[in-house]
Each structure stands twice: as structure tokens, then as C-alpha cells.
Amino acid sequence: MSQSPLLRFASNAFLDMPGVNTENDPSIFGQALANWLAQRLQAQGYDAGEVIAEDFGWCVPLARKPQRLWLACSGGAGDPAQWRVFVFAEGGLLRRLFGADAAQSIAAAFAAVKRTLETATEIADLREEAVETD
Question: What's the CA gap between 5 and 62, in Å, rounded?
């Protein structure tokens, strides 16, 4: 899997209500954040699909050619107002064939997400963290 750096930030605007998260681990929040980001990315030209639950949080499919990208959102690890997001492309044959395109697509989507967070009044303490890759 190829992925962007991790964006961490604080916000009380996306607190999921207790009992809402029935599709994955109830201690992992982020559905409200994923829906909010999906709407804003659609305004920037991304074909953001329906938010889906994963074991680690919530994902937004981002339809971009030639590579299918995903935006991962999670929070609630001890503090329900702390959030983590990153963009990733799935591995496999297509990634090997379009590796350079995947890196460029990930970087472009990451820039759109970061720009969205930087300009939102709901967001505080935005910071970028490098992620170790294989």
C-alpha cells in the first residue's frame, strides 16, 4: 500500500454520537469527519463515494484515474476530539504498473485534504507526520 503522510488535528465538530458506530470497532470514531471531508473533496472535483467502515476507522473512496484512492479517517483513541487522516492507494498489480501515477495521485489528493483542513475554522493544531514505508 502506498500512502501519504499522516495529518493529525483537533476538532470537536466531528464527534460521533454514542451508538452510531455499529459497523466497526465502536471505539473508533470518524464517520462524521469522513462525510464532511467527502463533501468538501467533491467540491474540488473528486468523485468521493459513500463512506465505508473499516477496522481502523472510516474510508472515503476517491475515484481518480488511473489509480483508485482512498481517504482514511479515524479518531477517538483516548480523546474523541483528536483525529488522523491519510490518503492511500491499494497495492497489487495495478500499483506496480502505475506506481508513479499512484504517487502523484496520492500527493494531489493529500494536498486537497490538507488545504481543506487548513482553511476550515473547525480545525485546530493541524500537523503533518511522515509515515515509514517499506
Answer: 17
